[in-house]
Design goal:
With about 140 residues, the chain is of the alpha+beta class. The relative contact order is 0.17. Strand 2 and strand 3 form a beta hairpin. It is about 50% helix and about 20% strand. The longest helix has about 40 residues. Helix 2 packs antiparallel against helix 3.
């Protein structure tokens, strides 16, 4: 009788552990999808420089809330879980700038010169561990 009771307890423990891991995985996936919606709305969509400034503010706030560290150049370091980096490629001088560089130099200056210029998201990468957005590349379309 004791052997049957121990066997059933072991089976219940195994089933409970598997159920917990499965439900935790679903919860993490839904959380990642919810957070990605803030950034995936820009994929394959033409947006203006004004919307880029809004996105820059979102990214900086998101990285600051998640306490993402910066390197010596002021760029957020990829932590493999929830950091986001954005690059903007300009066709004016064929240079790519990181969003933090524009943000630190003065987002108002960027807004003044590029507020009405159209950009398009050309690349998106995701963290392999959490499936959250980790990188986006925007390219200038108009001058």
């Amino acid at each position: 009788m004791k052997k049957i009771a121990i066997f059933l307890l072991i089976i219940i423990a195994i089933v409970s552990t598997i159920a917990y891991l499965y439900l935790n995985n679903i919860s993490n996936y839904r959380n990642a999808q919810k957070e990605n919606q803030k950034f995936e709305m820009y994929i394959d969509k033409e947006i203006t420089g004004t919307e880029i400034t809004t996105l820059a503010n979102k990214v900086v706030d998101y990285n600051e809330q998640n306490k993402i560290e910066k390197d010596n150049k002021g760029k957020y370091i990829d932590n493999g879980e929830n950091s986001i980096n954005i690059d903007i490629k300009f066709i004016d001088d064929d240079v790519t700038y990181n969003i933090e560089k524009l943000y630190n130099r003065g987002i108002n200056t960027f807004l003044y010169y590029y507020g009405d210029i159209v950009f398009k998201c050309s690349e998106v990468q995701y963290h392999s561990k959490t499936n959250k957005v980790k990188y986006m590349m925007f390219e200038q379309i108009t001058q």
